Amino acid sequence: MQQVITENKKAFMTGNETAAWAALVSGADIMFGYPITPQNEIMHYWTRLAPQYGRGFLQTEDEISAGFTVCGAVQSGKKAFTATAGPGNVLMQEPFGMAEGMRLPLLAVIQQRGGPSSGTVIYSQQEVTLTTFGGNGEGHRIVYSTATHQEIFDYVIKGFNTAWKYRFPTFILGDGYQAKMREPLELYDPETRGIEIVDTYPLVGLEGSISSADRGPQHLCNIYSMEEELYDVVMEISAEYESISPEVVEYEEKHCEDAEIIILSHGVVSRAADDAVEALRAQGIKAGYFRPITLRPYPEKALRAAIARSGAKKLLIAESAYGQFYRLTRQEIYGETAKIETLFMPGVGIVDNDIVSKVKSIL
Amino acid sequence: MQTQMVVPPTPKSWYLPSKPHKFCPGCGHGIVLKALGEAIDELEIQDKTIFGCDIGCSLLSWDFFACDSTQTHHGRTTPVMVGIKRARPELITIGYMGDGGGYSIGSQHLLNAAVRNEKVTLILVNNTNYGMTGGQMAPTTLPGQKTETSPFGRDPEVTGYPTKGPEFVAQVTPDSAYVARATVSKYNQLRRFIRNALRNQIEGNGFSFVEVLSTCPTNWRTNALQTWRFLEDEMEHYFPVGEIKNPFGKGGK
After folding, report:
1. Mean pLDDT per 10-residue run, chain A (363 residues)?
2. What is the value of ipTM here, to two decimals?
3. DSSP string covering A44-75, please?
4. Are A40 and A205 in contact (CB under 8 A)?
5. Distance (Å) from the alpha carbon of B15 to chain A's nearest alpha carbon
6. Right CATH number for A251-362 from 3.50.50.60, 1.20.120.530, 3.40.30.10, 3.40.50.920?
7. Of B46, B67, B82, the CB nearest to A72
8. Which residues in chain A have their CB less than 8 angstroms from residue B81's CB?
9. Which pTM value belongs to this model?
């Protein structure tokens, strides 16, 4: 693979440009995409950068096709990805379902926009339910919710590795703010940070000749004749998902040792929560911060431990949606007695003052 | 007395553990897949062929060939094949689908893959109905034809006229594309058309599309004679058989 970045490089760029660079240094072979705001510039940068490094691109007829062409390309053993948002994410649930059912190492960058329907082209955290549990399956996906451009870069690299190592469809869940704003970050070659790029391999189009009986043919399928056949498949996928979850799960926790209230947030909102916790602490309010980085699998054990350790009587869930992250969290910590307060601001940004005021109103 | 089983001549590229196949008696799929198998053998592409099938009766071919194969959702075979071909141009990708998958739910993929002149081969089996789901009206159901969702006969005033797939594909493709309509009633021609469609991909010319008129006695509720009559007298009359676009020279009927 042609080296893209030789030495660490400071950059000031948008999250979309960051995602394109990250895919490039990850060794992505081909992107399939369809225009939808706010993820367009991932394609814009990719189409300019990719030819310089012999990588491919196809603008498909819709998001359904973009998702399925990625499914085909990864089956052939190539590192393929796509990016979408909003109604495009809805359409892509069909190919994402195929990727779940056939354990395809698909990677998709989701830049959330407002919903429902066409919503806004700007920002939200309203694609949490869709990205974690969309489709007609069991949510056997890995979803990283990023908060900064550095994380977009880091987690796109990690996401490709996760997808190919574990063969679960993997998502980088960003949002319109992260997509469109510029901020500083450091670009690097993963190898120089000791990050080993996981090898790809084909599921069809394998080495060896079938006609001269070197090997048998691969017959992949995602539909089964008998209930029991499907049951076995789903139970096997579930068992494997559960067994890898402890290795995959990631979270960030601050000031939870003595917290009276733990503020729960994810993605870009966690930056406001972080600031809010510091401001509250400065005012003598014992606030803690907990942020799942993986929404699937969810860091349930770590959160329960943080609640237990702190003895917090209250949790505040802050999100730019009307309860999607709240519902996800609530089911994961079922049985905890800490009272859950909520700050739902669907489709609009949350700043530290919003959280500080809310905390003061409930303590 | 022991009877000797007569083994019919079988393409080398067929996967024997999945035989006998699971199509209904009188179904045309077996004939199409035999022609495809013979064409794969003749062109010696078994080892680099990726066979992909749709949902519907075509699904029953998911393990039909001793070729690497994959299977996807209803209508989505075209983009999956396009994805494989774009990622690995050295492979020969064959998408296999029915008229519902190609002309209805997957029509946007067929249209746009044709417009982009994707270097894939698609074989679409037209039996004028949705067989697997129990015989509903398809885009190709003939005017007046009775199906489960047109129980009084298809009324073109209400549901339009049958889709003429190869004609529409021919309109949107450049001259390097191969477009034909074959029928299971003319086996040698069918095999020739499929071979040409594969050759066109092997030579890297462009999009290759063969619609094959086929039989569905189970859902047509026809006996052998009626089945063949419907194919030859009704379908072949409405859907002209022949090569519409052939980069290798003048097409034959």
Report:
1. 88 98 98 98 98 98 98 98 98 98 98 98 98 97 98 98 98 98 98 96 97 96 97 98 98 98 98 98 98 98 98 98 98 97 98 98 94
2. 0.95
3. HHHHHHGGGGT-EEEE-SSHHHHHHHHHHHHH
4. no
5. 8
6. 3.40.50.920
7. B82
8. 72
9. 0.97
